[in-house]
Amino acid sequence: MQFEFERSVSADGDDPWDVSSAGITVPSPRHACATVRAMFDTDEALSERIAAHRSVALDADHLELYPLVIAASRAERAAIARMLPSARDRTFTLREAIALSRDPLAEVDDVADLALQMNVRRGRGMVDTARKPRWSLSRTHPLDIPDAHTSSAVRHSAMLISARRHVRALQWQLRHALTS
Question: Is 57 in contact with 22 (CB distance < 8 Å)?
């Protein structure tokens, strides 16, 4: 998510955002997978950063630095809230953040203001959390992006393409909310 967000910001000509990536469970530092590296191979500067990237474990100190925290799943969002309870109000799944950042309730001055409004909306039930129909083959909750790292290459690629689309949508909405 980090690299796609950075690429989207760069493509829009926005000032660089302070974006970071860390995992809930990181047994040891790892390189970005080959599928991710291939997705960015046409962007030389970003490709170099991805090649140098190593996964790191999330900690409370890291969380304190950011006014908005995006997780892939509700389970990760819950783990973040357990790690640092004060981060709960500014932590959202990617899909939840997209739904909650549409048309802010009032003008916002910064990302912290937007996160506050998103949390108010969440508290008012302004995000659809309905499960998929019983006949659906997917077991994934609508607010989650499944971890497909250990799935087939096709499923992993499909998940990354979907995540890329969601990251672009969130970046656009954040930019729009902060500049309107």
Answer: yes
Instruction: State the pTM of this model.
Output: 0.84
In a domain, 34, yes or no: yes
CA angle 91, 77, 72 (to 5 degrees): 95
Contact 157, 35 (CB under 8 A): yes
HEC string for 127-169: CCCCCCCCCCCCCCCCCCCCCCCCCCHHHHHHHHHHHHHHHHH
Count other C-beta atoms under 10 Å from residue 138's C-beta. 10
**Could you tell me the residue range of the domain that residue 166 belongs to?**
2-127+152-179
Segment 61-70, tens digit of pLDDT:
999 999 999 9
DSSP code of 69? E
The dihedrals phi and psi of 142, each to the nearest 5 degrees, come to -60, -25
Closest of 66, 113, 129, 118 to residue 92, by C-alpha: 118
